């Protein structure tokens, strides 16, 4: 790490003119430093436990951002954010205060504003944080701060304030950061900006003022579209959908979603969120088949560590499958870490499977608070008809002929005229094809037809077709996700370029497989 410490501790490379005379020499020196850094990262892409302190890690991140900003390499900014998330639990006021003194000019407007949000500490760095090399401690902050470093400092303070549950201070800090962010239009800032948008919305949501920033989010989305900031567009679109759905404005959310520009997803996490919100919108609009596909795809693409997100996707997917007349497998409720959370939905599924209306009402009342918290109460009400239809299907299989009065009694219909209601339910089920029977209105009974061989019908073909379509769709998505180096068919690849490409592919694979709990 000595080479790296010398790099990040000194003045910015473009300001050091004692040894470098020309832009070509500066670029050559920069390339050498980047290659040295790549070799260090290739050995370990995560923060080493042998590093002296949390403050030193932040200084390493500072250097990585400086390199990424100078070389215009977005992947280095992404890596810096990933390292910051790993350090999140180790951050405290003294460490951040020391880092601000290192990264920013003490007494400047940005330094003063960010320091005002931090609690006062008698000693800016504790004993562990002061264990840094003499060479780095003697260096001063550069006179001119790059936009990437400034936005990163805002992001670091904002994350700390949210973790400390100081939501009002976080709200003020996020507002100031967004106002400052509007003046920058650099691709290396886009990655930091997308994170800043997320915490900006989160701070207002935690204070209950989410509706206040809707107009600002729309303006930011319009700006990101004009600047071709696709990652910012993804993030802001999801934040706007979340904002609308938070207040049950499903029509406005669908209008925005249908008119927003679409492009290839850049972030797997943002794409998962988009699929989840799309599934919720489709569910409310009674488009259950599309909703089921979106929700299951979101749960499948989500990282393993995003347990809360996958639980929410599973809850909505279970309700949608029940509304479609399907019964989810028992293994859905037995997934690791989800057994207790999905218990209400397991009992609800059991009531629907049996077709017992009284049991369904008891479960709905027992877990009413849970369903209210999950905002699935309205969907539970819709399930009542499915419970009745399931019970009617069981009756039609068990009896070749049964009176409408007995059907009303078995279904436990508690209306003023249960026989008339039973007749209406039976007639609608026959019309929809839910049961294979005939209705004898004169005698007041239902006559079930003989159950034929299901393999003589088209149902097996339909089942196989849906499975084949699912496999083909997954194969097409995998093919679209393949990445190829540009112009690989035109020019031969040198050993150095091949090594660099392989290293980028390894970093991309680690980034995709990384367990990033903060994303959800």
Task: Describe, in plain words, how this protein is organized in 3D.
The protein has 520 residues and is mainly alpha-helical. It has helices at 2-9, 23-43, 54-71, 74-86, 93-103, 109-117, 134-137, 147-163, 167-181, 187-206, 214-226, 230-246, 250-259, 268-284, 288-301, 307-323, 330-333, 343-354, 357-366, 368-374, 377-398, 404-411, 418-432, 459-480, 495-513, and strands at 401-403, 437-440, 445-448. A 3-stranded antiparallel sheet has the order 1-3-2. The longest helix has 22 residues, at 377-398.
Jot down its keywords.
2% strand, three-stranded antiparallel sheet, 520 residues, 66% helix, 25 helices, mainly alpha
Task: Give start-end ranges of low-pLDDT stretches.
Answer: 1-31, 34-51, 124-141
Rg over alpha carbons: 30 Å
Mean pLDDT, nearest integer? 76
Report the major sheet.
3 strands, antiparallel
Spatial gap, N to C terminus: 32 Å
- Helicity range: 55-70%
Shape: elongated
Strand residue percentage: under 5%
Q: SSE string, helix = H, strand = E?
A: HHHHHHHHHHHHHHHHHHHHHEHHEEHH
Query: Structural class given helices, strands, pairing?
Result: mainly alpha
Sheet with the most strands: spatial strand order = 1-3-2
How many beta strands in the DSSP annotation? 3
> What's the helix count?
25
């Amino acid at each position: 790490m000595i080479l790296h410490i010398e790099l990040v501790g000194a003045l910015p490379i473009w300001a050091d003119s004692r040894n470098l005379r020309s832009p070509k020499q500066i670029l050559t020196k920069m390339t050498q430093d980047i290659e040295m850094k790549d070799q260090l990262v290739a050995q370990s892409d995560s923060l080493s436990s042998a590093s002296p302190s949390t403050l030193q890690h932040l200084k390493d991140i500072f250097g990585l951002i400086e390199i990424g900003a100078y070389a215009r390499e977005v992947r280095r900014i992404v890596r810096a954010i990933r390292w910051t998330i790993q350090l999140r639990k180790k951050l405290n006021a003294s460490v951040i205060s020391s880092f601000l003194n290192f990264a920013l000019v003490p007494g400047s407007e940005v330094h003063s504003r960010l320091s005002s949000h931090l609690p006062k500490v008698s000693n800016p760095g504790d004993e562990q944080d002061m264990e840094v090399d003499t060479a780095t401690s003697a260096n001063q902050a550069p006179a001119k701060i790059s936009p990437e470093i400034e936005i990163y400092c805002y992001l670091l303070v904002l994350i700390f304030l949210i973790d400390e549950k100081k939501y009002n201070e976080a709200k003020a800090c996020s507002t100031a950061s967004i106002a400052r962010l509007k003046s920058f239009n650099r691709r290396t800032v886009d990655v930091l900006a997308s994170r800043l948008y997320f915490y900006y919305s989160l701070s207002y949501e935690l204070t209950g003022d989410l509706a206040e920033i809707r107009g600002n989010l729309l303006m930011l989305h319009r700006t990101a579209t004009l600047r071709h900031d696709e990652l910012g567009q993804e993030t802001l679109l999801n934040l706007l959908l979340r904002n609308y759905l938070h207040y049950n404005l499903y029509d406005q959310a669908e209008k925005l979603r249908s008119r927003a520009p679409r492009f290839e997803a850049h972030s797997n996490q943002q794409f998962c969120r988009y699929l989840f919100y799309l599934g919720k919108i489709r569910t409310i609009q009674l488009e259950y088949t599309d909703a089921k596909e979106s929700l299951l795809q979101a749960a499948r693409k989500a990282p393993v560590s995003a347990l809360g997100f996958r639980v929410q996707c599973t809850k909505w997917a279970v309700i949608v499958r029940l509304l479609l007349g399907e019964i989810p497998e028992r293994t859905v409720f037995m997934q690791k870490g989800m057994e207790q959370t999905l218990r209400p939905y397991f009992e609800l599924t059991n009531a629907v499977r049996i077709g017992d209306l009284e049991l369904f009402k008891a479960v709905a009342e027992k877990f009413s608070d849970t369903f209210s918290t999950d905002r699935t109460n309205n969907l539970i009400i819709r399930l009542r008809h499915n419970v009745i239809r399931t019970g009617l299907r069981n009756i039609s299989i068990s009896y070749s002929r049964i009176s409408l009065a007995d059907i009303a009694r078995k279904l436990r219909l508690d209306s003023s005229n249960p026989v008339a209601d039973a007749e209406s339910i039976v007639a609608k089920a026959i019309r929809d094809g839910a049961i294979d029977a005939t209705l004898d209105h004169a005698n007041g009974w239902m006559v079930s037809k003989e159950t034929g061989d299901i393999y003589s019908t088209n149902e097996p073909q339909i089942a196989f077709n849906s499975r084949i379509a699912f496999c083909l769709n997954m194969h097409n998505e995998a093919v679209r996700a393949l990445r190829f180096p540009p112009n690989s068919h035109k020019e031969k690849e040198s050993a150095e370029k091949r090594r660099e490409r392989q290293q980028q592919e390894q970093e991309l694979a680690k980034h995709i497989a990384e367990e990033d709990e903060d994303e959800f």
